[in-house]
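Homework help thread (please don't just give me the answer)

Our assignment gives two proteins as sequence + structure token strings and asks us to describe the second one. The first is just a warm-up. Here they are:
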Amino acid sequence: MFILSNFISSVATVIDIVLNLYMWILIARAVLSWVNPDPYNPIVRFLHNVTDPVMYRVQRILPLNFGGIDLTPMVLILAIIFLRSFIVPTLKQLAYSLA
């Protein structure tokens, strides 16, 4: 059972790292939206390609554009914080109980 325990613990760690990285990508996208970056810059294109699909889905469900300020990144960051504080510890506790 220790193999399954280690696997679940590793999956929890990977999920935590991926969610943390995506949160920082969202923050970078939000900061770039305050200025007028070159849309052909590879970094700007990468940030838009990675964040646009999720942001469009949230914007369809919750139109959060108030006076030209888009609050979608804030909602996504709060969702990521919730997932990191709920799913990751739950998986780690499950892995600990299997050991």
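The one we have to describe:
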Amino acid sequence: GEKGTKSQFKRPGSAQLRRMIVLSLLLLFFSVSVESRVSFTTSEVLDDIDLKGTKAEAAFKCYTGCRVYSPTRNANIVILDNTGKEGKSLLDIANVKFGDAIELPENNAPYKLKNKGPDSPSFVFYAVEKGAMNYQTKVLYVTSADNFTILPKTNTILTVLSSSGAVRFSDFSGDHTGALPTVHATGFDSISSPSCRPVYDAVSTTTLLNTAFPVYSPITTINFKRTSAGKSVVISGETYVQTSAGQDASAVYVSPGYIGCENVGDSLYTSLSLITSFDSSFTVKDSNGLSVAVNGDYSIADKADAITLTVNDDVQTLFGKKPISKAYDATSFKIGVKWAKKEGSKDRFAMQIDVMSSKDNLQTTTKSGNPMIIGSSLLVMFCSALMR
């Protein structure tokens, strides 16, 4: 007679079973994690709140093996594998040569960080699972005193980790025609995600060359789109800096801890809160005409904590959770942005204000059609007591 058909379901082997158990444990951990975790699809960024107070350990996503990065020079924060064995410290990771990375194997997962030093250390740690998008991307470490000139000769993408909690982009040079750069408040693995948007999206080479701005984030990524020996940008960890403002320039304004990805919910980076408020205003005049594009994304819970955006007689109170995208034409503009962060809130936003001569072609949306993350020129009021 005919042979009986075999079941299509196979009993998992020991290795497969182990992987399933590890994944279940990781999912359980992430499901009970509180506000501490900034978790993307294939990576995580851990910072101060993950080892806050007397909390001594923090697991991180590394199920399939991962690369780990940190600019933090702390020998008391170490990696533990699944047997509890100590591995590299954050100091070891910070000492790795630019372009190299420490890789953790899958067979020793899950991993976690352990703090053996004083409570509530300040740190930044980026773990990216093997096989993630742009996995071979180089990562640059910066401090508040560093200045690096970056030339995208062979790589179009660069991620920056900052121990100061800020990354400044300035002195763009070269011909970027047909390949205008974007800057993101995420690691390299998330910049192509449809749920994430950039904090800066250059609209023209003219404005790009006149633009400089800080991002108050421990991690940023710049995508040059195309390699070229003639392009460059200066990247630093400077903290007390303002954005550019004026004609044929972009003003970029990013609230502290902003991420820009819908899939991370209300998470914010918490490594350093360098600023408590923004109070910005500038005036531009040109009898031949000007075009202004305001694009942004914000999540402000209460009207009392709203952003006030002023463009001539158009005064807007921005609160709730939505994008903003507006364009204006005139011969003179008075532009202002005012906002104060409510202590303990999850309020956040990013804005970009592009001011261009009317004769130039002003692009007002990103290549994907999503609103750009936008900003303004500003006078920044810092909370110096939080500087470390």
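TA reply:
I won't write it for you, but here's a hint about the kind of observation we're looking for: The two ends are 80 Å apart (CA to CA).
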